[in-house]
Amino acid sequence: MIPKTIHDRFTSAGIVAVLVIDDAADAVPLANALLKGGIAAIELTLRTEAALESLARIVSEVPDILAGVGTILTPEQIEQTVKAGAAFGVAPGLNRVIVEKAQDAGLPFAPGIMTPSELELALEMDCRTMKFFPAESSGGLSHLGSMAAPYLHREIDFIPLGGLNLENMADYLASPLVCAIGGSWIAKRDVIAAKDWGAIENAARKATDIFKTLKEKQS
Predict the structure, then answer these.
(1) Are 127 and 161 in contact (CB under 8 A)?
(2) Engineered SS bond to 179: which of 15, 101, 157, 163, CB 3.0-4.6 Å?
């Protein structure tokens, strides 16, 4: 479900900024601020009327950023997401109808899972990269490691989201189970609405500095 080209961009980016945009006019300056701060991948959530237009503007005007869509809950949203030019899609949960619709549409897709049963169902539908959500409240890395252990031979990995922050992101990124993390703290909804692009750029840079330092230690 996630082709190697997209997966490689996830691992290279390390951090996927999770965004809620209320005004499509904010989309391009927001994406540029994130890119200046080192964030090269975003998940634009379908929680506002401006989401799809925001995605289309970013895809058109900020091509260097990997722009995907999150909170995909209906088959119709798969169609809308593809039409708007998303590079990938994710969902908070695992819905067979949604996954199959994404497959039919050719949309790289990562369903959300947090139990072994959900993981097995995802594998049955040929999903190898999954969203681990909600990460911290469901047990964090300890839970993820225990849950994934019986399935490691299936070449799986995860994008954890939920409760991650500057303090714990390095622990997640150091795990071989994690290809990238989701970060909703980097560009919070109220900061976007306030158009404080400098604050967002600074938050992005702090996160990417941690990621770069970790990579340097691992090399």
Answers:
(1) no
(2) 157
- pTM of the prediction? 0.97
Could you read off the pLDDT of 48-62 as tens digits, one per residue? 999 999 999 999 999
pLDDT digits (tens, 9 = 90+) for 170-200: 999 999 999 999 999 999 999 999 999 999 9
3-class DSSP assignment, residue 1: coil
What is residue 161's three-state secondary structure?
coil
Residue with tokens 């970013």: 58
d(CA 134, CA 27): 26
Angle separating helix axes 75-84 and 96-105, nearest 10 degrees: 30
Between CA 99 and CA 41 the distance in angstroms is: 21
Residues forming beta bridges with residue 66, ordered by sequence position: 41
What CATH number does domain 4-218 carry, 3.20.20.70, 3.10.580.10, 3.40.50.150, 3.30.70.3340? 3.20.20.70
- Which residues carry out catalysis? 43, 131
- Residue-by-residue DSSP string for 138-196: GTHHHHHHHHHGGGGGG--EEEE-SS--TTTHHHHHTSTTBS-EEESSTT-HHHHHTT-
